[in-house]
Amino acid sequence: MTCPLPAVIQSGQTGITIGRAWPTTGAEMRFEGTDDAGRIRAGTITLGATSKVKLLDHGQDRKLPDLPMAMADGELIVHRTGKRAVVCRSEQYVKVVRPGDAAQFAQSAEVGRARAVKAGMSAPKVLRSGSGWLCTSIVPGVALHSAAKTATAQQWQSWWGQWARQWPRFVLTDQQGLDQFTAADESNVLRAAVDRALAWGALPDPTGRGRQLTAEVCSSLSQFASPQSGVAHRDLHDKQLLAGPDGIGVLDFDTVCVAEPALDLANLAVHSRWRATQGVWSSEQAAIACETVRRVARNLDVPQERYATYAASTSLRLAALYAFRPRWANAAVSWWQHQMKELPQ
Questions:
Q1: Which of 167, 93, 148 has the alpha carbon at shortest distance from 285?
Q2: Residue 128: how many CB atoms within 10 A of its CB?
Q3: What are phi and psi of 134, to 5 degrees?
Q4: Which residues are paired to 137 by β-bridges?
Q5: Fewer CB atoms near the end CB (10 Å): N or C, the chain?
Q6: Which helix (H) or strand (E) holds 259?
Q7: What letter would DSSP give residue 70?
Q8: Whole-number Å distance between alpha carbons of 192 and 186
Q9: Higher pLDDT, 4 or 241
């Protein structure tokens, strides 16, 4: 079993080392990677007997017409073809989206920030916006994802302790005006991710156990929902949390909503385990993160069954996501196979 996408694709004289990919329709995938000059490049590839690559020019995307403007005096750091891009400038980030979409992104950013600040955390502030772009402030700090490389044991414990004190306050802030993300919504996200990975052959399922397990997790999510709800980030992981000079910062509130607290907590814990599998974190660092998350779950009275169900969902979903990232595809398959053995039958 190998990643459907090659690690390096060639477009003319340009080689692109693929970082991430997302299946779209038919045999087409969007991809993001780096070119021979180390620049972020995006495009699409249609796989088949003869692969067809459409590589966008650096910083160009006809569905994101504001991207060239955003690139002035900035560095492109994220580009998902036709969807969004992020440019880093010296004192701000610029998120570029499709024309007409920026208002919703700006609103979500401010709604999330207000609740994060109330809980004692820092978050980016929207400085200005247009139809297809928004500028946000830079929050001082280093993402926990990369901070682990140089953190002392004392620093690591301290950062997670700060997060544990502040996160429940965020969960318990005002829910007014936020959309609901239900357990049924989570099951739909999981099912779609696994279906894509299986359809592309990115994950193995010779006995059908993977599809069966996914159906069982979806059933548990949807049929035995907890009455609990709180403010949720909905994409909480170590790259969204900053260790800063003034405490913990939180990034990217695009999906802020009301959901079961188990959603964010399980997502964060499972990502922590995955970082140890990747070798990005030590097993000790991952264990501290997971134990801290479990402590917060207990403090928020999250039912253990709900926490375990959301963790199972995240574990399967992560395998389906990373199976399309060439560097991590083999690890994702091993992770997937491990879930088949570990999760209840």
A1: 148
A2: 11
A3: -145, 140
A4: 92
A5: C
A6: strand 257-259
A7: H
A8: 10
A9: 241
Q: What does pTM read for this prediction? A: 0.95
Spell 20-30 as b/e; 16+ CB within 10 A means b: bbbbeeeeebb
Which residue's entry shows tokens 């499972």?
Answer: 270
Contact status, residue 237 vs residue 271, Cβ threshold 8 Å: yes
What pLDDT, on the 0 to 100 scale, is given for residue 345? 55
Tens-digit pLDDT profile for residues 98-132: 999 999 999 999 999 999 999 999 999 999 999 99
Whole-number average pLDDT of the chain: 94
